[in-house]
Amino acid sequence: MRTGPILCPTDFSETASHALRYAIEMANLYQVGFRLLHVVEQPLGDENFQILAITPDELAKSMEDAAADRMRSLLAGLDSELTIETMIRRGDAVTEILAEAEESHVGMIVIASHGRTGLSHFLHTNVAEAVANKAACPVLVVK
Mind telling me which SUPFAM superfamilies this protein's record contains (predicted)? Predict the structure, then answer.
């Protein structure tokens, strides 16, 4: 863990910002690299685009551009001397986070959990839980 970079996936939520602070603190402590990742979910099915004047790829590209703008804003607000690598990937969040972790040989993933319980937990995919269960490296889940 102490030699590989820390990967911090973000959905730009308040909870993710809280996890980001933990991730930066740990990267500074261990003097390792830092990777910030946002995954743009691919819109499902062509039927969702019949009323749009743009193609699914154009819509996904627009979503990536918006995420890049939010990533720049997020980085501008950070008070850190770390060199932060940013990535935007397209696809399923769990799959892309795990792929980035493996490809980058990260030492740890620091991810936010939205802390859903009951029916909300049942109805929404828990990305943090899936990443923690499937990752080959240690995972710190922050609430």
Answer: Adenine nucleotide alpha hydrolases-like
Residue 84 is predicted with a pLDDT of: 85
Which domains does the chain carry?
Answer: 6-142 (3.40.50.620)
Strands 139-142 and 6-9: unpaired
Report the relative pairing of strands 84-90 and 34-40 from DSSP bridges.
parallel
Residues 42 and 60 sit within 8 Å (Cβ to Cβ) = yes
DSSP-derived secondary structure for 73-135: HHHHT----S-EEEEEEES-HHHHHHHHHHHHT-SEEEEE-----HHHHHHS--HHHHHHHH-
The per-residue pLDDT for range 114-130, each reduced to its tens digit, is 755 554 444 456 899 99
